[in-house]
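ok trying again, last paste got cut off:
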Amino acid sequence: MISRLLILTFIIVFTGCSTKYPELPTVSKVDIDKYKGTWYEIARYEHFFEKGCKNVTATYELKDEEEIKVINRCTLIKNGNKKEAIGVAYSTNKTNTKLKVSFFRPFYGDYWILDLAKDYSYAVVGTPSREYLWILSRTKTLDKKTKEKILKTLPSLGFDTQKLLWTIQE
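nice, full thing came through this time. structure:
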């Protein structure tokens, strides 16, 4: 009886921890000094913390050798009020491609850099669960060719492009 219980527990634990998606590939390396600064959100999967936002930006500043200050800003569409959230991030690997970000410590979420222009002009960020996705740019708009390239790649990574909300940037 005890051995059956142990086997059942083992199956539940490891089945519950598995994901329906294959490993999410990231870019090979990110230079944090080049990545820091302000990024404009081009598109995202909608979430409660950005619901009803336009003019969304994310600014990354080095706090110290291990932590990055994250400042997310937006304007609420319904009333024009400004909203700001300050968080912290840190890299979980030597290549800086997988980060953990928190706006509500002690809770951290994944922030994986999936695509990044050689000149750091755009980035695609997502999570292994495929629940979160952002397309970011150094400018308020993204050229058509780059946008099409990103949209063509996302389904092969397990992301549904129909779920993207295109951010209003004024």
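cool. DSSP finds three helices and nine strands in the chain. The helical segments are 2-17, 32-35, 144-153.
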